[in-house]
Amino acid sequence: MANKIIRQKIVSKNFEIPNSHKIDVALQNGRYSTLDKAFSKDPQELIEMVKQSGLRGKGGGGAATGNKWQFVTNKDGTKYVVVNADESEPGTFKDRQIMEFDPHLLIEGIITTCYALGSHVSYIYIRGEYEEITEVLQGAIDEAYERNYLGDNAKYKVDITVHRGAGAYICGEKSALLESLEGNRGNPRLKPHSKTEPEWYFDQPTLVNNVETIATIPFIVENGAEGYRKFGTEKAPGTLLFAISGQINNPGVYEEQFGVNMLEFLETIGGGVKNGKKLKAVIPGGASTPIIPAHQIKDVTLDYECLWGFNSELGTGGMIVLDEDVCMVKTLKNLMRFYNHESCGQCTPCREGTSWSEKILDRFMNKTATLKDLETLKSVSTIMNGKTVCVFAPAASGVIDGILRHFESEFLECIK
Amino acid sequence: MKIIIDDQPIQCKEGDLLIDVMLNNQINIPHFCYHKDLGIDGNCRMCMVEIKGAKRPQIACDTFVKEDLEVSTVSKKITEVKRSILELELLNHPVDCPICDQAGECKLQDYYMDYGLYDSRQTTEKTKKGKNIDLGSNVVLDQERCVLCTRCVRFTAQITKTGELGILGRGDRARIAVAPDFPLNNPYAMNVVELCPVGALTSKDFRFKQRVWFLDSTKSICHGCSRGCNIDIDYNETKYGSEKVHRFRSRRNKTINKSFLCDYGRLSYKELNDVCDKKSSSIQELQQAFINNDKKIALASASLSWEQLDSIKSFCQKNDIELFSLPYIDDSFGDDWLKTNDMSANFNSVKKLEISYDEKRFQDVLKDSDLILNFDHKYFKNENKSDKTLVQFTTTSCSENYDLIFPIANFAHDTGHVINCDGIKQKFFSTKFRGEQITLTQLLEELR
């Protein structure tokens, strides 16, 4: 049974207040008010609280945040908190709203997180293209330094450095992000052998969390784990900033609890498909999640577990709506152009597989493809899945498989 | 501890790297990026194996062995994975083996014969990249043949720490490159040619000179300095019957040179081709010289083998000749890694055999002597030493600076031992050259 649409605002509360990025306005609207409560608690108590809240990473992976924090504190060394603001997944534009309209919420979250982990240094790795947002964010950080929420004179010393990326999608992958932050080429690292391993920044234990995840922390501190668990589902408590784009009447970012019905969400909040067209499919959580055809959408609820059941992912919750006029061959070609352009080129299956897929799709586009090309495309997709360092190639593979699974007939029409 | 690979039990130690276990046990495991002395990188994905209990195929270069690990390298599934990855490696490769200098020792060729043997499914254009790029230090790059294993990049980053090489671009546009005006420039640069598993990096010194399947190989020790790096001498006979050494390759020795060689040592093979073509003097002539000259002195090169030095020593003792051996010291040659200031290969043997290396005493004795026996020492190679009678026992061609000459076999034609700077005694072997050059030991035997 799907959850009701309640428009609960946890991180988006201040978005519509004018000048909410200014510290005076932010302070009037409750920012930095949870810090004293956080500092009155033992750091381990905070970590337990986050564990109990069931908060899951909101950058797409959905891993349990509390466990991630614990892995960092379990290790000796200087701790670092890195905020992943390299938001470059197509169809996803939620983190920028927080940094643009409520940057002090993020700063407040960072201070609490640093306190819980015993860290004094934090980096915000922001997408290079977010130039104006970087200025807003940096302005807010400067204000926080002036008012002694950050820096040497703060109650708990935290320094935040904003680091701009150089335009590589793969640097949103946490280990590639850290490589990039260390000054190296942004290639993902080999996965650790232990499941309780934190990330490592210059060989020191490091936490990498998404912007929205960190921005949720002040709410949990204020309302407790139970306060957060009031929303969402058992396994995915709380809310997420869902983004809608594509052929929809009200594109935008809307905060909603997990577990609501996708079709209901698109119709009531999204305002239905543009120009009264029929819905064809939805890419549910950013470009890297396999497509859901229209006939399945009424059964989909917006939480991680339900979408797994449809061979897809909730991802970042950035839904791309496609209407009946959309050509799936063009859609797949567009997506593969993106993956070919952004593959870091480290692993062979990804480097060669993404480019080969795009080249084969070109043949479908100009109708010179043969049935053999379709077979080749399928087998390239198979070899990209599960044989690389990071999940970039499996994601690209899932995108191909998803579209072919539901719309193969459109590809057969393009065969000469 | 034991693990099971393809139903065979294999003994190994807990925590060993699976790929090392397989390589040490001669189990065929295709790989490009893994190298024992450069470590794990995990980018080529060629060494995938099936591990019992694991959901997906795993790379052997990032798997540490545990008790009773069960590995399959030959199952249908894993063979298909290897075939597919190889297909992708070759997708944008120009397949220009007939004009590629790597042909015959190319991993892509080997693995294609082992795991490929498919018909091309490619219906699209290949990605074009740069060709014949001179990186500097004798190294030439063909980006289209490259599999981006980054061995060369890691070598300059981790080993020489000079960092000249890097990767530019992403996806299938990724390519190895140097920055403009910063060519590959370090004393170990040519190692990248040997590290390259394919035909992307070739050596200007060796390329197009000889097909590798015409070469024979012999285990030897580099004589360029006292480090004693282990090498393979690659050589053959030319069409006209003369013999030629074509290159040195490093031979792995974990404690001495790992898998590396300095460029000076690598190119020192040229000396082996510089053999003396003069007609040997006769033994009678030498005996006559012994009678005519009373005061004799002998100087032996500190790069001669233990066996040679030993027989020179007993020869000199028997004939009452004072023997010296001076090392070749060049303070500008050594570094903190492989190269040593002592450029003689066997000075430690000189010390062990208690041959004098007192240079002052040598000069004094030399002044008074009238017959010099020079056993291949460079001291008398080019300088004309006035009125004294000079007998040259030489491995290389020398100027007209001699009275008697005895060409002897160089270390490629001889077998023997050298003791390196750290006191490690190592054996080198003679190549199978047909042309019989007399070795010094045989010659001294005849002189007795």
Q: Provide the residue-averaged pLDDT of chain A.
A: 94
Which class do the helix and strand fractions of chain B yield?
alpha/beta
Count of the separate structural domains of chain B: 3
Q: Strand share of the residues of chain A?
A: 5-15%
Main β-sheet of chain B, in a few words? 5 strands, mixed
Q: Distance N terminus to C terminus of chain A?
A: 46 Å
Radius of gyration of chain A: 22 Å
- Are there runs of chain A of 5+ residues with pLDDT below 50, and where? none
The CATH C-level name of the largest domain in chain A is Alpha Beta
**Percent of residues of chain B in helical segments?**
10-25%
Q: Mean of residue pLDDT of chain B?
A: 90
Q: Widest sheet of chain B: strand order?
A: 2-1-5-3-4
Strand order of the largest sheet of chain A: 3-2-1-5-4
Number of domains of chain A: 3
| End-to-end distance of chain B | 59 Å
Description:
The complex is a heterodimer of chains A (416) and B (448). Chain A has three domains: 23-229, 3-Layer(aba) Sandwich (Rossmann fold), CATH 3.40.50.11540; 239-323, Ubiquitin-like (UB roll) (Roll); 328-413, de novo design (two linked rop proteins) (Up-down Bundle), CATH 1.20.1440.230. Chain A is 44% helix and 13% strand. In chain A, strands 3-2-1-5-4 form a five-stranded mixed β-sheet, with helices on both faces. In chain A, a hairpin with a 2-residue loop joins strand 4 and strand 5 (204-210). The mean pLDDT of chain A is 94. Chain A has helices at 23-28, 35-39, 43-53, 65-73, 95-101, 103-117, 131-146, 174-181, 211-229, 262-268, 294-297, 304-309, 328-342, 348-365, 371-384, 392-413; strands at residues 80-85, 121-126, 159-164, 199-201, 204-210, 239-246, 252-257, 279-283, 292-293, 318-323. In chain A, helix 3 packs across helix 9, helix 13 runs antiparallel to helix 14 (348-365) and helix 15 (371-384) runs antiparallel to helix 16. By secondary structure, chain B is an alpha/beta fold. Chain B has twelve helices and 20 strands. In chain B, the strands form six sheets. A five-stranded mixed β-sheet of chain B has the order 2-1-5-3-4, covered by helices on one side. The N and C termini of chain B lie far apart (59 Å).
